[in-house]
Amino acid sequence: MGVESEKKFITVEELKEHNKAGDLWISIKGKVYNVSNWVKDHPGGDAPLMNLAGQDVTDAFIAYHPGSAWQYLDQFFTGYYVEDFKVSEVSMDYRKLASDLARMGLFENKGHGTLYCLSCVALMLSLVVYGVLKSESVLVHLVCGVLLGMLWIQSAYIGHDSGHYQVMSSRKYNNFVQLLSGNCLTGISIAWWKWTHNAHHIAVNSLDHDPDLQHIPVFAVSTKLFHSLTSCFYGRELTFDPLARFLVSYQHFTFYPVMIFGRINLFIQTFLLVFSKRKVPDRALNIFGLLVFWTWFPLLVSCLPNWPERFMFVLTSFAVTSVQHIQFCLNHFSANVYVGLPNGNDWFEKQASGTLDISCASWMDWFFGGLQFQLEHHLFPRLPRCQLRKISPVVRDLCKKHNLPYRSLSFWAANASTIRTLRTAAMQARDMTGPVPKNLVWEAVNTHG
Questions:
Q1: Is 441:246 a contact under the CB 8 Å cutoff?
Q2: CB of 131 within 8 A of CB of 141?
Q3: What is the mean pLDDT of each run of 10 residues along the chain (449 residues)?
Q4: Cα–Cα distance between 289 and 154 in angstroms, integer?
């Protein structure tokens, strides 16, 4: 009793006051930690800590960190405990499930997926180079473009996996695989991916905090974006001006064409980050990896005999890769959205609300990279993709128990759902009052959808 009486307590409301840069506190299992100085060195970036500052983050911490991370918390302990925080039944069940999965060794049993993927990528790259250099057939060059697109898709899955958990025998090799599969092979910086992707996971489907839903002026998944929200991630206003209104009004038509060229946007975003004033982990290595990509890719394209074939080759590779961009949109565009910061005590609820699974046969798991189990991945981002199908029934039952959404649609049904969401927002954009350029095309499309 003497030790208990010496404990210092603060209330949930007092904890909320420590939610700013330079004064950033969090609580984990009732203990309060000061991470104000740690935020700049946090491997996951500053966004996760800033978004959850002043809250209990136990569920998010469990989701993102292995058991070995708990030993480092004591250095940040303030000496305070939260006296009036109550753990929800959903959170208790989530923590129990996470503990059960760890006890079963599922986080450590990674299978051989990465080895298979790397082997396939090496084989496809060899075939692409051989086909471009040794064949004069237009059809062969077309097939090479398809293979290059598939190579990029599988490389992205490797980069995604290695960014969430260690797929190699050591952290050094894991970082090498990240750089190889991301920067060198796809031209997309792993630093940019980590920066945006961690923020997406923490604030999934928050219109002002999740960068994966901030596509104004091209797309808007909710009318709430018509009010020119401020992006807390990018630190700028998502201005819904006449141009945005015009583009959004046709977004259900432009969605697939834009996805074909979506890769160009990823290239631009990569360069904007690595050459920005922001602190970028391993900036030099990231730039080196990009130089590798922008050396071999243009050289490969230049080896094709004429400009029409070069255009065909690049366009084909982009079109194939667009399937992956579309999949990422299917997982979230038609799910529930909200405005504001995520709440650390409704981790499970927010993930269930903001995600959509894509049902498929097990032999197609390689094609979707495990991300067809989007809710399972969001709940347990460190879980190897080969384990996601195994835990899917358990997650479904847990959602049913707590009356939470568990949406699993076929690939085609998910496409239809996404297009309906985009069309609904498009029709509402057209109905807004205010001047808009009108012509016969506008009137025809506005009439017939």
A1: no
A2: yes
A3: 67 91 92 92 86 91 90 92 89 95 92 88 96 96 97 94 82 89 94 92 94 95 94 93 95 96 95 92 94 97 96 97 96 95 85 95 92 96 94 96 95 97 95 51 41
A4: 18
> CA Rg, the chain, in Å?
23
What is the value of pTM for the model shown? 0.91
Residue type, 377: H
Q: Got the DSSP string for 217-285?
A: TT--SSGGGGG--EETTTTEE----HHHHHHHHTHHHHHHHHHHTHHHHHHHHHHHHHTSSS--TTHHH
Q: What is the pLDDT of residue 84?
A: 82
Tell me if 48 sits within 8 A of 120, measured CB to CB. no
> CA-to-CA distance for 388 and 384, rounded, in angstroms?
7
In this structure, which amino acid lies at residue 264?
I
Maximum CA pair distance of the chain?
85
| Rounded to 5°, angle at Cα 245 from 243 and 247 | 70
